[in-house]
Amino acid sequence: MDIRLFEYALEIYKTKSFTKAASHLHIAQPSLSKQISKLEQELGVRLFDRKPGTVEATSDGLCFIQQAEKILQMREDLRRELLERKEGIRGELKIGSTAITGGHLLPPLFKIYKEHYPEVSIQLIEESTEQLIDLTAKGLIDLSILSLPIEDARLHTKAMLTEPLYLVLPKEEKPWMSEKVKQVIHSPEQLEQTTLSIEHVADCPFILLKKGYGFRHTVLELCARGRFKPLVAYETSNIETAQSFVKHGLGVTIVPEMVIHQSPQQQAFSYIQLTSHPTRTLVFTYSKERYLGMKAKALMDIYEKHHQSSISFTEH
């Protein structure tokens, strides 16, 4: 069976049209129809139902498409692996990360990587956690850096680091603050020794990341353990924007430790430890069913080698 037939069937399934599929494949439409008809005769089943204006896969067709995708993936993975064995570590590496992590963790890591592998072109893809999980599972991203939990069975994870979370408060007293929070605000000299229970901000307005971001889930879980649902005042896709809202007295937020170390406005907030000592764990994430290339493995190896050394990936 010619492997091109797998490509033909998959393109028809994606476009739901013989005409569009033929155009994308750069072959004549009658030729494509003839090839699929021969394939159906060879298999003894009908793969597609031709309907006015559309084409839909039959139940047998869906089974064929699922296996065809795997076979084509295996072919591509084999091609990539053999090319790497021949040419070494070079080409393009696609790394996924959310902005909250990528902006703080990746620059020093990429710097070291480029020193070792100058012929590798790194493409950084910043999206929401939800989007990154799907792109990584499909093999469209080589490696993503995400926080646990990762509940997609298509993915492998490898632990990177665990860091504490902090409550971020404005420097000045606001009407929405509880008495306990006001006491903390008025004792700046004791901030490093002060801890607050998450319940003390249960009635405060919260600034959260938008839906689809894993860190939003982390904060909501933290509030749930404190037996309250946060009053969401504003939502953003950027942790620095969330902190700016706090700076102007519009609410509170939660940030991971790495944000504190690199925040350009560090003196504009009060960072408070929480009594429950919450944390988040970052992991390398990659597809179980796709070939993990030498370029991606090299990045993980560099991180592991330097993580415990004098080079820090979370602070300058």
From TrEMBL:
PROSITE patterns attached to this UniProt entry: HTH_LYSR
CDD domains: PBP2_LTTR_substrate
HTH lysR-type domain: residues covered: 1-58
Family membership: Belongs to the LysR transcriptional regulatory family.
UniProt keyword DNA-binding present: yes
InterPro entries per UniProt: LysR_HTH_N, LysR_subst-bd, WH-like_DNA-bd_sf, WH_DNA-bd_sf
Keywords carried by this UniProt record: DNA-binding, Transcription, Transcription regulation
Protein known as: Transcriptional regulator, LysR family
Lineage of source species: Bacteria, Bacillati, Bacillota, Bacilli, Bacillales
